Amino acid sequence: MNKINSINSAETLSYMIKYYAFLNTNTIMNKILLLSLILFTTLVASAHSTLKGKVTNKKSGEPIANMLIQIEESNISSLTGTDGRYELRGLAAGTYNLRISSIGYKSLHETLTIADNVTDNRDFIVDENPVELSEVTITSRKETSINTISAIDFKTRPYNTTQDLLRLVPGLFIAQHAGGGKAEQIFLRGFDIDHGTDIALNVDGIPVNMVSHAHGQGYSDLHFVIPETVEKINFTKGPYDARNGDFNTAGAVGFQTKNYLRNNMVKFEAGRFNTYRGVGMFNLLNNNDSTNRNHSAYVATEYFQSRGFFNSSQNFNRVNIFAKYTTDLNATTNLMASASAFTSGWDASGQIPERAVSAGLINRFGSIDNTEGGATSRYNANLILTKTLENDAIIKNQIFYTYYKFNLFSNFTFFNADSVNGDQIQQYEGRHILGYNGSYVKTYYIGSIGMKTTAGIGLRDDRIGEIGLDRTLRRSRLSTIRRGNVDETNFNAYLEESFLLSPLLSITVGVRLDHFRFRYQSALTDTLAQPVGKTIANPKFNLYFTPATNVQLYISSGTGFHSNDARVAATQPGLNTLPKAYGADLGTNLKIKQRLFVNAALWYLQLESEFVYVGDEGVIEPSGRSRRYGADFSARYQLYRSLYADFDLTYSHPRFLDEEDGNNLVPLAPVITNTGGLSLRPLKGINAGLRYRYLADRPAIEDNSIVAKGYFIMDAVLNYSTPKYQVGLTAENILNREWNEAQFATESKLRNETEPVTEIHFTPGTPFFIKGTLTYFF
After folding, report:
1. Which of 33, 329, 356, 510 could form an S-S bond across to 333 if both were Cys, CB 3.0 to 4.6 Å?
2. pTM for the full predicted model
3. Does the pLDDT of residue 6 top 50, yes or no?
């Protein structure tokens, strides 16, 4: 038995004896005295040496987070924080083999000799490397659980749109149904999330979800993100992370943009349907000199336009500008500042009824009302100051500001409400968002137990100067249904504590508190609803156990919530404005041999209420309690050095709890989804991808008498790269399938009909589409 294992075995036996004595001590006072003695002797027994330092990227000089530092003779390990720092405690004097590894980096192996009762500072520089699944290490830490999947996918799968980025979340599906300019409809874990009601999204800590939105609660438009600027994606499934609050029920996704730009780049894309896209990314400082990498600044620009594949031109255009500056003010303080501007406009053919296509009135790409469409814009400013304190704690302060405008014209029911002018509506708003996020993270030890405290506070204030719903005819106002001003404020605080009880077992517990203040003033009645305050607390629990070096088991449970519209909360305070979601996961991460990584989970989620404010009608859509359970399965396999395969399969069983069997299905909730593909990264300059996605049939109404049809689609990407340029082809729907991307069971009436009809209304999915890409690096 080697030295470390002997120490660990002795300590483990000592703890077992002390714990048994503690349980068998009768009086409260004796328990307290014995507990104090245990703590004292533990602290004394752990007075060994400490190894600490920082890990940075060789190319960029940036600190690397979540890098695993592990003693090869044992399971003793540490993960680097956001500042790249690590710490290993409780080391006896001796010689150790140290392994430093992370996905996408070349592993380092160091032999170190540690003296007795000292603190040894060692910094390491690691180089980037193609993804090797043999480098994946499974530990009992929360940070190395499901996000291993996203780290592998992000570095192996080609992507060039924000939709591609969202699809990197296993089991997440999206649908576009308004000319490309409207936010995507999202499906995840048995939820038709609409545009973001049950998934929390953020970019660099700035929330994407719009509360009390003119079109839909949680509306999340990610088109202000330039895909080429994204450095990393983090996602969670279920409401188990205390850092995520409003809308975190089915899951949460965070995008992190690059701090450092490796090369200047100009990209041009051209494809079918008069589709063109240009991207430019430019360093503003000379960072080629490694001594000048303590600060970085770059700007990225994007222009996109497309006629679209519909009979009526979609006239879609989008402009994005993003700038970011990072600098080390000193050895322990980092400042990040960014700003972005986004504007977009489009026409839309809208959702069309099946009967109009069957009767030959229009074809699949036609329209009933071709004057639909919209325009939107978003401007962001973001400032983050990160400081490492003398006790190695990390404190972060973030201030952000967003100015947002939205204007949408839609016609879902045609002539059902107004047989003369039609049922077109306009939804509009303009808002200012001011927010603050603060966090404190400290990693430390009590005896041999590693602990990590994460605490945070946040504030978000939405001032919506005018939000409304009008009846319109060809985009001209006929009447106003609802108009007013909204002021919504959310204050939050959270505390999360992680305990690394042993190299095999860790527990993370947390609690989050959110307080909302809702205020609404109607412009039509000139009345101010009484401001309403609501508070909700949500506990979280995660346990990770590693019985073997290639197996991690985990149990997660907790509650989350999605808020409802301020116009509901302020005018009907008796309703449950902050309905809770109760969830639990039982899962495993497996590394099978050297090239296969598997994640599998059984999950359960119950919501107190699914009612939401319907912006299309200006009313509340009542909906009772619901329950979902299901299974997720994901596998990542490295076939050869540069060839990777991925496979995701999900099953969900969503039901309303307060309805009778047979009439309790959740409309449009996905039941079975499956995605997969092959990725070649890169081989003699060639990188490529072949992918498919499958969404099974699902009920469109509660009794399943109307069904939303499923689909199977395949896409392909082929690129050839050199250090100076890249040329490529992207093909979507290579089988040229006829498929319906967005589907709804809607009651509508055409101009020549006397009675309304309820049936599937759909937006057709993309026919075969191909585009070419030319990128120049300098």
Report:
1. 329
2. 0.90
3. no
